[in-house]
């Protein structure tokens, strides 16, 4: 596998999120955020969907985000390892509640601002560009309690204030920004994606799509602010991507695949094209949804579209209209899917489809004609530490090299891809399950699902593989 397609300034790197890596969940003035209420175990998924028993952590539950991998205190050690691999970029998120602990404080928390100053300085010192997500599954709990989170218009202005604050603060340090991580996750895990909690009798679809509108307007206002404050910066959106394949060539299956894709494309259509597509307007009509839009919203959306499309890709999905076929389901980055008989699966049931990466990249390029940025892609697996301390994760290398190769093919196809920040270059808490056992990293972190361990870092075999990929700018994928 050799590829000369990657541009010389291609942004090779990795991606983490504040809530899955930093820990220090109430340190230096930080407020509670939505992920701080997600325990491990069987209750986690129900809470992520909006069945929230308490807006404070409960006794007897283990909340993995509270300490995570302690990146807050260990970031210099971790960045040194990223630099050793040759990273050109590291995607991180800013914890909104670290800057505005309640979300509506009159002044920002200086200790929180200083942490990110120090983090970005350390990255830049090591030749690594920060790629910063403004909201990565992160809403201050005070705003959930007081306003019902993004269902309330008030959050648009509060988010704009937060965005302007950090854009102004870091304008000389950060040139790549994103607004909302996997914005389409709002429809599938509403509390995780948008801090939405529901009660008996709520019109859940109405609330979700009203919240979506508020996020879309807030995203456009953040784009406006970025273009005004940092004219040479790029700011993008972020999609949890992966095409839906029809299970058969039955036109009903094909149409359903298109509809499933549109559930996600809806968000990016608005952020990239600046207006609600016709199919969304029909969906609102057909389902009796009345999305309240303020005067001027349409103009804001139209005038402030994103510069690039960031997306995560882990697997493709498959859909069927046949009830018998639908009995055979598998998982994958939260999206349910019919099991695809042509694809293997990870131990967590996520299909492994490198060609799907190329298909998805081409579809996004054809649809939007904007630069793409692969900001998440990785392989979650249980890693065994050998007696000599080594970790031979050949399965991860195999997954990643085939996906990087597919990305190279997409670039050969003419798709403009500006970078690749694979997910979890260091082991972090899994967003979907709260586990540490589900590891993505090139760097092992000594911590288990119950929070035990030294947090010591060590290199896996894939560490050397990715270092070689970056050294050769993707020309050598075999290691």
Automatic annotation (TrEMBL):
- Tell me one GO molecular function of this protein: 6-phospho-beta-glucosidase activity
A Pfam family in this protein?
Glyco_hydro_1
| Catalytic residues (UniProt) | 376 (nucleophile)
Q: Does the keyword Glycoprotein apply?
A: no
Q: What is its EC number?
A: 3.2.1.86
User: Keywords, A to Z?
Assistant: Glycosidase, Hydrolase
Q: What is this protein called?
A: 6-phospho-beta-glucosidase
Give the family, as the similarity comment puts it.
Belongs to the glycosyl hydrolase 1 family.
In terms of InterPro entries, this protein maps to:
GH, GH_1_N_CS, Glyco_hydro_1, Glyco_hydro_1_AS
What PROSITE patterns does the record point to?
Answer: GLYCOSYL_HYDROL_F1_1, GLYCOSYL_HYDROL_F1_2
The record's annotation in NCBIfam families points to: PRK09589.1, PRK09593.1, PRK09852.1
Q: What class of enzyme is it?
A: hydrolase
Which PANTHER family does this chain map to? 6-PHOSPHO-BETA-GLUCOSIDASE ASCB-RELATED, GLYCOSYL HYDROLASE
